[in-house]
Amino acid sequence: MATLDVNPQTYQEQLADKVDRLNEMFASYNVPELEVFESPEQHYRMRAEFRVWHEGEDLYYIMFNQETREKYRVDQFPAASRLINDLMPLLIDAMKDNDSLRRKLFQVDFLSTLSGEILVSLLYHRQLDDTWTENAKALKQRLNDEGFNLNIIGRARKMKIVLDRDYVIEKLDVNGKPYIYQQVENSFTQPNGKVAEKMLEWAVDCTQESTGDLLELYCGNGNFSLALAQNFDRVLATELAKPSVVSAQYNIAANKIDNVQILRLSAEEFTEAIEGKREFRRLKDAGVDLQSYNCNTIFVDPPRAGMDIDTCKMVQGYERIMYISCNPDTLKENLDVLCETHNVTRFALFDQFPYTHHMEAGVLLERKA
Q1: Containing H/E element for 139?
Q2: CATH classification code of 47-168
Q3: Which CATH architecture has domain 8-42+190-367?
Q4: What is the pLDDT of residue 3?
Q5: Tens digit of pLDDT for each residue in 192-214?
Q6: What is the pLDDT of residues 10-20, one digit of tens each?
Q7: For residue 191, what are the contacts with CB-CB under 8 A and spacing of at least 6?
Q8: pLDDT, tens digit, for every residue of 165-190?
Q9: Is 259 annotated as a binding residue?
Q10: Catalytic site residue 146?
Q11: Catalytic choice (206, 312, 326, 339)
Q12: Which of 329, 334, 330, 288 is nearest to 309 (CA)?
């Protein structure tokens, strides 16, 4: 993890700069007034990872200066959640005098939640044995006795030891209603919990007057699918990563939602399937008839590379397109295609990554008359 200057006194200034940049980037698309969703000024990241430095008997976290690549000691990290900051010193102190836990430890990853659960992954340059497992169990018990709801994973080359479970259960509040999400170690989740709640509320608001069914591409663990299900008859969602699909199925059951169907297909594969170019056994096995769906609205949340041209062309076939983007540059490229047939009617900035140049944007597009 590289250095990050978290200074609440500069937060509004950096946010205003992002607003100006995003408005300037998209001015040619005749966008409506930008809706701006702020982040907490500190303790906003639910995830953090640190390298570990061994100096004689001492043991501490380090980060690297992005420009000079020089290392520096980190005892607290204001960008990370309070839960991570509370645990950081206690964890390192508990391992410092334990040879089995500290030997060849080179990295610690934290995954925390707004709901109070936290998962710690300890990464080693050596194979882990039964002694490590016993000591890690004692460490977990000791920290949980101090008030944490903690699980631990040990990782080494071609090794993964899970003490109880490799995920946390997050609860996000969407317009006063709690949604339960299983978040698995090393799987994608929105890093800024409070902004994630605002994104879900915005998406629900955008689709308030919807009719028919929703098609969602790149659905991950069902993050948006579950909250959006209330506005549609049915939701058909696709995701390629198998762990995310498994989590999505868990989340559907945990939230007692009965109108969401998850398919393990990439966006490109779904395009081939819906256009009849290719048949997929996965669809038959799931008993899914794509032609039975009445999808007027499509929701996409693609990776940084954006959508390929064939997917963009397929997406143009829907009355309404809701697009969440973690990369305004590729959003812009995709809008060059989508705005041939659609107008942007909602435009949002979600400050997922304060004090960095990264911007998360949302647009709602509606077919031109």
Answers
A1: helix 130-145
A2: 2.40.50.1070
A3: 3-Layer(aba) Sandwich (3.40)
A4: 54
A5: 999 999 999 999 999 998 999 99
A6: 999 999 999 99
A7: 45, 46, 47, 352, 353
A8: 999 999 999 999 999 999 999 888 88
A9: no
A10: no
A11: 326
A12: 334
